[in-house]
Amino acid sequence: MQNTMKVSEPAAIGDTVLFPVKLCNLPPFRAAAGKLISLSEEEGLNLRRVVSLVGGDPALAAEILFLANSSLFGFPARIESLRHAVAVLGFDGVKRLAMTVVMRDLARGVGPFVRSSWCHSVACAVIAEQIAPRLGCTAEQAYTAGLMHDIGRLGFLRSYSSEISPVLSGEYQDADQVMAAERSVMNTSHQEAGSWLIEYWALPQPFSEVCAHHHDPLAERDSPVLRVIKTACRLANAAGYAPVRYTQRPQYTDVLRSALPDIPVESFPSEEAMQSEVESRLQSFDSRARRG
Ligand SMILES: [Fe+2]
Ligand SMILES: [Fe+2]
Predict the structure, then answer these.
(1) Counting beta carbons within 10 angstroms of the beta carbon of residue 173, is it exposed (0 to 12), middle (13 to 18) or buried (19 or more)?
(2) Nearest ligand to the CA atom of 154
(3) Distance 67 CA to ligand 2 centre (A)
(4) What is the pLDDT of residue 292?
(5) Other CB atoms closer than 10 Å to residue 41's CB: what's the count?
């Protein structure tokens, strides 16, 4: 039975963890986006450098221009050039769009579980950018980390769709149960696989930490971005964007209260407002995918 086969070809990569070898067969992370994600404004980055970086990947530049002209931003005048887009959206805005395009392309066309995983990632990113400023994290870093936090699951789906699909069609009490099921067929969890992929692609370390620990309980020592993503991932599930079925859907306000007890719930967007924002982003991102 192909569908229930355990992956039997792990490779020893790293000191202590075994990884399925086919994760190495994912397409390389797009170079322009990889360079962009590793740069920060504090490094004296000027707009000309961003234009030349993104302009080196014409397909990525075209996608960014398309999204810059979409209803997502609602600019009154048409943005005709990458230079104009960078000037209007700024470094952070272009970085967010570049990461969205890259992650959406990785999540394209490999079955229904990829769709729910993509929707969960977008919801997590949108929620993360909203709560980030209250937790000492930049909205841009939070958004990118939200998009990438479950990259390990996408890696499984792109490489081992028939093995991982029965796992994703199950019903679970919590994320620990999901990861136990992943381990039973993949020899590893999406957290470990995601962290490994981030390092394999030489992306910045904070994203690796987020991938590796986003399902751990909240802890005092958490970095701001890790705390944001732990919270945003749970809120995305509570808002109806869980990547798998859970026996019980947590209440959005309960998650907010328990994760962020010092901040009044009313100071965050409501569940309905968050859902409406997620839906509008998904629509914008999908409109380009359908044309592409
Ligand atoms: Fe996860
Ligand atoms: Fe998640």
Answers:
(1) exposed
(2) 1
(3) 25
(4) 44
(5) 14
What is the model's pLDDT at position 92? 86
- The pair of three-digit structure tokens given for residue 96, joined into one six-digit string: 């967010």
Closest CA to 92 of 144, 55, 150: 144
Ligand 2: centre distance to CA 4 (Å): 24
The answer to whether residue 87 is domain-embedded is no
Distance 55 CA to ligand 2 centre (A): 32
CATH number reported for the structural domain that contains residue 181 in this entry: 1.10.3210.10
Centre of ligand 2 to C-alpha 120, Å, is 7
Residue 240 is predicted with a pLDDT of 97
pLDDT of residue 41: 56
Whether 209 is in a domain gets the answer: yes
Distance 127 CA to ligand 2 centre (A): 12
Residue 92 resides in a domain: no
Domain count within the chain = 1
Condensed to tens digits (0 to 9), the pLDDT of residues 224-264 reads: 999 999 999 999 999 999 999 999 999 999 999 999 999 99
d(CA 188, CA 160) in angstroms, rounded, equals 13
The Å distance, Cα 131 to ligand 2 centre, comes to 16
User: Whole-model pTM?
Assistant: 0.89
185 is a domain residue = yes
Low-confidence ranges of the chain (pLDDT < 70): 1-22, 24-25, 40-46, 109-110, 288-292
The residue range of the domain holding 256 is: 9-26+111-291
Contact 92, 98 (CB under 8 A): no
